[in-house]
Design a protein that fits this description.
CATH class of the largest domain: Alpha Beta
Distance between the termini: 42 Å
Strand order of the largest sheet: 1-2-8-7-3-6-5-4
Number of domains: 2
Shape: elongated
Number of helices: 11
Strand content: 25-35%
Number of strands: 19
């Protein structure tokens, strides 16, 4: 699948994708499924044979979490109902609809307001078509191949933001061949990022969602914790540093695809093996981890790193302010967890004085890159 273009307006948003084969159609439907909610009305449009049935079947199976579910076409019954975990689902095919009043007799209005509604051939009932929040239009591309399709997604109103997040992922994965991969959520870190492991045969990759972080409250000197600790707010800095570390022969994830604007990256999967086994440290891995730090600290590394054509990322100085901000976490988290008493102002001042005396000599040494959160 490849994205051709996208456009948006305040009233609606639209995306256009090329579909290579039915596997792409199924993958596309599965990706949209989690974004749908009770009360949504989705229409499928397109000529006979354009793939509406395959899309509908894949979407219903994804919503019911049953890959083997029999999904008959409601061509003659007009309405077929299903139960999902979160809401009822109705599937309508209006191709043989003779009179819109037939829908009233079948209780369509009452059902659709309480359900997720999927309608094929909604053009045969203009009132239903006008209520659609999301339209999936499929068309053939016989000049390319019999299997090739074009999908145009049009979202209107409040559903647009939900669908946009899906379309952003589709646009990222489509050119890489990872669109049809199985996806599972995996444990994240203490940041606002979250991660999915993509699995395709014996290959895996990590899809990283990195929304713009919340700034947080002002702590002191008009600065938030992120500002005091010199934390970056952009995905581009992560990508730049990962590539820079790889250039220094340090293991960092390869970046397969990235969408900085929407906070998405497809990166190399390092697997699930860690540095501990059976609750015992693996000494060779600890040794290699420390050796990485030694190698970096033995090199004269640039503060200005190229991030694109005529674009550079400047590493902020990791000086006294961020270092004292980090050791302060011991007072905020470690001490309260292990002591029932609170520290006096004098004790806190003494704590910072001790650490400042320890840090100052380090700052007089040649500066190099610091791997933050290098936890052993």
């Amino acid at each position: 699948m490849t994205r051709q273009n996208s456009a948006s307006s305040s009233a609606s948003m639209q995306w256009r994708f090329d579909i290579v084969d039915e596997r792409d159609t199924i993958a596309f439907a599965r990706m949209i499924a989690p974004a749908l909610q009770r009360g949504d009305l989705l229409t499928l449009s397109g000529d006979l044979g354009s793939g509406k049935t395959a899309f509908a079947r894949a979407l219903i199976r994804a919503l019911t979490h049953d890959d083997q579910l029999d999904v008959p076409s409601p061509t003659f019954t007009l309405i077929q109902t299903y139960e999902t975990k979160n809401f009822p689902l109705i599937h309508c095919d209006l191709y043989r609809l003779r009179d819109p009043d037939e829908l009233i007799e079948l209780g369509f209005d009452d059902l659709s307001y309480e359900s997720l509604t999927l309608v094929e051939w909604a053009s045969h009932a203009p009132e239903v078509e006008g209520r659609a929040m999301l339209d999936i239009h499929l068309s053939l591309k016989p000049d390319i191949s019999p299997e090739c399709r074009v999908i145009v997604v049009t979202a209107k109103g409040m559903i647009s933001d939900r669908i946009k997040s899906v379309m952003d992922v589709v646009a990222l994965l489509a050119p890489t061949g990872w669109l049809i991969a199985e996806r599972e959520m995996i444990a994240g870190d203490a940041s606002g990022r979250f991660f999915e492991r993509l699995r395709q045969g014996d290959k895996t990759a990590i899809l990283m969602h990195a929304p713009k972080p919340f700034a947080g409250p002002i702590l002191r000197d008009g600065k938030t914790y992120r500002a005091l600790a010199r934390l970056s707010d952009t995905l581009s800095s992560f990508v730049t540093m990962a590539r820079a570390l790889r250039n220094e022969q340090v293991s960092a994830p390869e970046i397969y695809a990235v969408d900085v604007e929407n906070g998405l990256a497809l990166v190399e999967d390092f697997g699930i093996e860690g540095i501990v086994k059976d609750q015992e440290p693996l000494s060779d891995r600890y040794h290699e981890a420390v050796a990485v730090l030694a190698r970096l600290h033995s090199r004269d590394l640039a503060q200005r790193i190229q991030s694109g054509i005529n674009e550079y990322y400047f590493l902020p100085a990791y000086d006294l302010e961020p270092l004292l901000t980090e050791v302060e976490l011991f007072l905020e988290w470690y001490h309260p967890a292990f002591s029932k008493s609170s520290l006096s102002d004098d004790a806190r001042a003494q704590f910072f004085t001790i650490w400042k005396d320890l840090i100052d000599p380090c700052l007089r040494d040649p500066q190099t890159w610091t791997l933050r959160d290098f936890c052993l």
